[in-house]
Amino acid sequence: MNHGQSQSKLHERVKMTKYYQHGDVLIKSINYIPKNAKPVESTILAEGESTGHIHRINGGKAIIYMVNLIMYLKVIKKISLIHEEHKALFIPPGNYQIDKVKEYDHFLEEARKVVD
Fold first, then answer.
1. Which helix (H) or strand (E) holds 79?
2. I need a labelling partner for 41 at 20 to 30 A (CA). Which of 11, 33, 86, 107 fits?
3. Tell me, what's the pLDDT at 15?
């Protein structure tokens, strides 16, 4: 097998995790949502801690789930995320885990959430 063929085989085996970021919200593509996750009647993914502005689902079709204080999102039909201070972000169908962006302060040697 030549180098080109081995690289191609490697790319077939390695599946890259897809991430999206909308301000301080991090959206990570996952294979499945835990079976014990419960649906939540909301379209809000996060509320800004300093401004009170919200990251919210607009259009499409999606379900938000929660389990152990972790939020998940199942997008059935492409959605857009909207927020007063950011451009709309389109998310394709799939399963996602929702988190907050963290920054690391090397001087204090600590991680902290980014405040939107």
1. strand 79-83
2. 86
3. 59
How far apart CA 61 and CA 72 sit, in angstroms, is: 14
Residue type, 16: M
Mean pLDDT for all residues in the chain: 80
Percentage of residues of the chain with pLDDT beyond 90? 42
How distant is the alpha carbon of residue 83 from its chain centre? 15
Q: What's the CA gap between 94 and 108, in Å, rounded?
A: 37
Q: Region 81-95: what's the mean pLDDT?
A: 89
The answer to pTM > 0.85 is no
**Token couple for 15:** 């599946």
Q: Taking the CA of residue 36 as centre, how many other CA atoms within 13 Å lie in the half-sphere pointing to its CB?
A: 4
Three-class DSSP category at 102: strand
Question: Is the Cβ–Cβ distance between 21 and 30 less than 8 Å?
Answer: no
